[in-house]
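Re: [ENG-882] Designed sequences occasionally contain unexpected residues at chain ends

Forwarding the minimal case from QA. C-alpha cells:
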C-alpha cells in the first residue's frame, strides 16, 4: 500500500447539511436525488447514477442544469432534475 501524508484537516461538519432526498422517475429511469449545502454552496448526489456535483444553493435553473449535464446526465434529464430541485427549494 502506498503511503500518503495528510498535512491539514479542516472540519466543516457543522456547515454541511442535507436539505432533501427524493426519488424522481423520469423517462423510464429512477434517480435518487440528494441535495444539500456545504461550505462552498449547494451540492447534489445521484448515487444510483454515480453523479455528484456542486450546484447553486439558490435553485438557479440554468446553472444547475449545466452542472448536471457536465457531470454526465443528458440534457433533458439534467433540466428535469434541476427544475425539480428549484421547485423543491421553493417549497421548503
Amino acid at each position: 500500500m502506498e503511503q500518503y501524508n495528510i498535512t491539514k484537516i479542516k472540519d466543516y461538519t457543522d456547515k454541511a447539511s442535507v436539505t432533501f432526498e427524493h426519488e424522481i422517475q423520469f423517462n423510464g429511469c429512477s434517480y435518487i436525488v440528494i441535495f444539500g449545502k456545504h461550505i462552498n454552496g449547494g451540492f447534489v448526489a445521484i448515487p444510483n447514477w454515480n453523479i455528484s456535483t456542486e450546484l447553486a444553493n439558490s435553485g438557479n435553473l440554468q446553472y444547475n442544469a449545466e452542472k448536471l449535464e457536465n457531470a454526465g446526465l443528458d440534457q433533458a434529464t439534467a433540466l428535469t432534475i434541476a427544475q425539480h430541485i428549484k421547485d423543491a427549494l421553493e417549497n421548503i
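QA comment: On inspection the terminal residues look reasonable. The CA atoms of residues 10 and 92 lie 30 Å apart. Proposing we downgrade this to a documentation issue.
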